[in-house]
Amino acid sequence: MSSVLQSKKKVMQKAKAICEAMLSDLEKAQRPVLTAVKCSLDNSIYNAKVGYFTPGDKMVRSELNVSSVQKLSRTIFVLDILLNNLEIDAVNTKREIYYMTKGLTINGEHKSLDFEEQSECDSIIDYIMDLLEIYREEFNCFAGDRGGQTYSQQLVVTEFLNDGEKAVVDLSTLGTMPYQPKNKPQALKLKVKKKVDFCLVVESEGTANTLVTMGFTKRHNCILMGAMGVPTNGVRGWCKLIQDQLKVPIYFYGDLDAYTLQNIYRTLKAGSAASLIRNKDFSAPEVRFLGLLPEDIKKYNLPYRVVKENNPKEARALKKAKDALKNDPFFQDKKNKKLTQILHFLIKNKIRCEQQALMSVDPKDPLKPEKIIIEKIKSGSWV
Amino acid sequence: MADQQITSSSTAEYFAKNLQQVGFSSPTKAVLTTLKESVDNALDACEDHQILPELHVEILKLGPGGGRNTDLISIRVSDNGPGLKPEDLPRVFGEYLASSKFGRGRCSRGQQGIGISAATTWAQLTNACGVKVKSKTSAMKKAVSMQIDVNIKKNQGIVKNKETFDWDRKHGTEIEFQIDGRLQSKGDGGLFTYLEATILVNPHLTLHYFIHGMDDWKRTERVTDVVPVVPPSSLPHPHTMKLGEFITHAMAFGKTSLKNFLSKGFSRVTPGSIELMMKNGLKKTYINKSIISIGEAELKKVFAAIQNTELPSPSTKTVLTVGEEALSKSILRLGEIDFFSVLTRKPKVCDFKPVVVEVAIARFKDRPGDADDSIQLLRFANRVPLQFDKGGCAITKAAESVNWRSYGLNQSKKSLPTGPYVMAISLTSPFIKFKNASKETVDSSDELVEEIRRALMQAGQKLAKHLKREQKAGELERKLKYIEKYGPILVTGLVKILKAPERRKDKALKGLSQILGRDTELAVEELEVADQKLEALESEAS
Ligand SMILES: Nc1ncnc2c1ncn2[C@@H]1O[C@H](COP(=O)(O)OP(=O)(O)OP(=O)(O)O)[C@@H](O)[C@H]1O
Ligand SMILES: [Mg+2]
Questions:
Q1: Which of A271, B214, B343, B520 could form a disulfide with B459 if both were Cys (CB 3.0 to 4.6 A apart)?
Q2: Which domain holds residue B249?
C-alpha cells in the first residue's frame, strides 16, 4: 500500500497532540495558539524538480481571543465529529457533516454553533485539514465525485474496503461504460493485464466517450479518461496513481485557451495553491500537454474563435491569464517556458480553439480525431 | 365694450379670490393653514408680552362639509396671551393688512397681517360663518365674545352676537373656526407633524391638544421658563433693496434731505459711506436737497450709486436662536430617542441679510418604518414649520448635498439619508426670501445653501460620535456574548476529545475566563474612551 495512507492512529495522535497543547495552555491561563500553513499563491513554491506546488514558510496564526473564540470553538467541535467518524469508520460528505453539527448538542443546547450556511462549516473542515496537514479523505470526509470516468481493455483495479475485504474491477468487462474512481486513491491498487502504451486524459468527458464508442480503446493499448473540467481531488489522485503505479506516459488533451491551461491542466500537473498540503499526492507532474497547440491550428486548419472582450466572463478569463503570467510560480518557471509561450500567444492573439475542432478536419471520417491524436502522440507533438 | 366699468377691488376682495396663494389651496391644506395662523399668532403675542405660552388646540370633525368630499371641521385655539381689546377684534380678524408686525425687519412668525383674516374669509366662504372669538386683556373686567365676519367689499370686519362674560383667566384669546376641510394627521403636511415641529422649536411652550381620532387630550410640558426675546427690528440694508422698493421707501421721507434719508432710513450707512457714494456718482448737489425735489428719475441714479458702493454687512443682532441647550431638552419631548445632536451656528450674513441656522438630528426608538425610508425632514423659517413643496427649498438642497455616509448614516447619492431619524433645520432671519407667495420654500441662493450645509456637517460630526459610541457598545456586547457562548464549547470539546478528567475542565474554564476577561476589559476601556469623547462634546455645547 502507498505511503500516502497514514494510519488512523497517526491522524488521531496528531489531533490529540494539538488538543492537549490547547487544554494545558488554558489551564495555565495562557492563550492557545494554532498555526496552520498559509494556503495561497503567495505562499506557493514551485520547483520543477519536485513538480508540484509546495508550501512556503508562511503560517496563519490563530491566537485565542474574543474575536477568534468562535472559530476555535467551532474547530474543536467539528474536529470531535471527525475523530468520532474515524473511530467508528463512518464516512461522510461535507454537507452531511454540516447537518450533523445541527443535530449535536453541547451542554444540552442546540444551535450552539450557528453554522448558518454550509460554507461556514466547510471552511472549518478545510482549516482542520490545513492545521493537521492531513487529507480530508483520511478523515473519511469526501466530496461528491465528479469526473475521472475511465475506459481501458487492460486495467484492473483492486479496492481495499474499510471492512478489510477487497473489490476487484476488470475495466474490459464494462463495455462503453466508464469506471469512476472513488475519491480515495490511497485505497486502490492498479494492475494491467497487458502492457499499456499511454494514458489519455480528455478535458471533455463527452469527447472521451465518443472516442471509446468508436473503438479507441480496442485499437490502442491505453487508458482513456474524461476529466470533466477542473479536476476534482478524485481525478487528481487517480492520475497520480496511474503515473506512479503504472509508469505510463500521460497526455492531456483539451481546449486551447487560457482557462484550460491555467485551471485544468496546471492543477492536474502541479496541484493548486488552495491544496498546498495535498499536492504531493494529488498532482501528476509527468502529465504532458498534447494540445490543442497553437501550431495545430495552422497544421490542420482548425476553426477558432475570437475572445469577446465585451463579454464579462471572457474578459475576466483574459485578465486572469495576464495575472497568472505575473504571479503564478508555475508559469514563471523556465521548465514550463513552452506553456508560458502558449499563454502569451493566447493573450496576444485573443483567440481560443476548442478540442472538438478536430471534427472539422474531415467531417466524413468519424475516426479522424483519433487518428490526429495518435499521430500527435507518435510524432511527439506535445509540450 | 363701452358699458364695461373699471373697478378697484378691495384688498379683501383680492385675497378672497386668491386664497390659494396664502395656503388655502385644498381642503386639507386649509385646515393646516388655519391652525398654523392661529398658533403662530398666539405664540407671537405671548412672546411680545414676555408671557410663557400655554396653548390648547382642539380639532374636531363635526359632520359632512358643504363641498364635495369635505368634512365640517372645527379648529379651536386658545392662548394665555395678552388678549385683544374688543375694538381691535374686528380689525385683527376681519381686515387684511391690519398687523402690529407689518413693516418687516423682525424675526416674528407673522409678518404681514394677512394670515388670520384669510382664515376668517375661508370659514365664511365655505361655511357662511366667520370666526368666533373670546378675548380678555388684563385691563378688562369681563371677557368679550363675538363672531366676526369679513366684509369683503370694504375690507372690514363685521361684529355679530357680541356679549360679555366672566372668564376664569386674567388674559388670553380663544378663537374657533368652522370650515370645510379634510383631516390629514401624519406625513409631511400632517397636523401632528405641525404640532410636533412647533413643540420642537418652542421649548417654552406648554401645549394641550386633541385631534379627532385621539383617545384623549395630550399635554406636552414646557422645558424652559425663558421666553425668547425677539430683537427689535433693524432698518433695511440698502443692498437688499430693489429699485422700486427704494423709491417707495424714499417717498415716505418726503421733505427730508437726501443725506438724512440715507443715514436714518437705512442701516449701515455712515457719513463715510455717503462720501464713498459721492465718489461713485452720487451728485454732491443732491445731498442737502429734499427727496421730493429730487424726483424719481434722479433717484434712480442715486440708487445706482449706492449699489456700487461697498457698505459694511448688516448687523446680525436682529436674529434670535432657540439655542442648543433648549433644543436638546425640547427634542426629548418628541418621543423615545436613542441619541441626538443639536447645533446652533453663529449668526451670519448671507446675501446681505443676517441669518442663523440651527439643526437638531435625533434617532428615534419608537418610529418604526422601513430602514430605507427617508429621514423625516422638518424645515423652519422663523420658527414656522414649512410643510409643503420641499423640493426646491434651500434647506432640502443643503441636506441632500451633505455626504451623510461619512457620519454613519445610510444615504443614496444626492438624496436625503434614510433611517428612523428626524432632522430639523431652522432658519431665522428678519428677511427670509421665499420662492413664492405661499411661503413654503426658501429661495436657495448659493451662499445660504452653503451656510446650511456647514451647519449640517457640524451636526453630522457630533452625530458620528454617538454612532461610534454605539458601535463600540455593540462590539462589547457581542464580544461578551461570544465568550459566554463559545468559551464553554471550546473547553468541553477539548476535554471530550482528550477524555480528560473533570478537574482539568474546571481549571481550563477558569483559565479561559481569565484570558477572555482581559479582552473584555480592553473592550470596556475602548467604550469608556468613546464615552469620554462624547461627554467632552456635550460639555463643550452647554
Ligand atoms: N391670539 C392673539 N393674541 C394677541 N394678539 C393677536 C392674536 N392674534 C392676532 N393678534 C394681533 O393681530 C395682528 C394681526 O394678525 P395676523 O395674523 O392677521 O397678521 P400677522 O400675524 O401680523 O402676519 P401674518 O399675516 O404673517 O400672520 C397681529 O399682528 C397681532 O398684533
Ligand atoms: Mg399671523
A1: B343
A2: 238-307
